[in-house]
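Protocol step 4 of 6: structure prediction from sequence.
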Amino acid sequence: MHKLRASKWFLAIGCFVLLLTTCSFANHVVGPAPPTTSLPLGTTFRSYRAPFNVNAAAWSPGGKQLALGEDDGTVEVLDTVKGTIDFSVLGHRNRVWAVAWSPDSKRLASASWDQTVNVWDAARGKRLLTYRGHTDLVLAVAWSPDGKRIASSSSDNTVQVWDATSGKLDYTYRGNSGTVSAVAWSPDGKRIASGCFDHTVRVWDATTGQHTLTYYNGVDMKRMLAEKGGCLRELWESLVSHVTKLLEEGKAAGELNSSIPTKVMLFSFFSLFSPKSYDHLLLGEDLSHEDLVKYLWRIYFNGIANHETT
């Protein structure tokens, strides 16, 4: 079994999850919660202490629930409006490394180092199915925009696309030559992108599995998230706006003209399709304790790649 460095853990290394809501979960109180209108920007409204390391967290599309994946195999869903735990189940035999909501918020998928993906009823915490197609750690999971299919990636070097209701395998993408640590659907559901430890991002047709584009990056991929709302893009740009201004326009397909080091330390890798159009990828790499190297480029899926300063 492969092991991922602790510095590469996604979103939460420790046991704390901070929530921008209005009261406390269980008995873990941050303090009296004043009306939200009187609070300054960035105030912590509520905190939740998990019993084990939290490796993954995902907001429901409606923004009312937060799903957590923990080190002991537990999947938890928190109601951030009521301040309650909707359900907490020991759903896996090893670490839960990724969680993802269906577009309608009714189901939740959890990916684990036990080589499985579970699909849950998000309201009752009932397991609807277990997908067992992988032969190694499952590191990423993503729903298609229509909620009918799930893509999961693994240390077995594959991305598997399967029916979200029956668990029947649609096809296996084998274009990667290393651990596939990230996967994302385009907002129109026609393409899938994967990030791999072989230093590449690959894009292929979501229906046929036919490869359309490979981008060689030169560093290990950590995480890929699809986000239509643009909130992650805004967060990323606020962190590295001083760096993105220095990027130069690329002149050749796949060419990387600017590699700019900075002392900023980030523990996440973000990858997302722009909500404005389907031909953008925004990528950032976590280089652990080394200088962060920031790449921002615009990818045209006909094979042309240029940098963009947004």
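Step 5 (inspection) to follow. Confidence is low (pLDDT under 50) at residues 1-35, 218-310.
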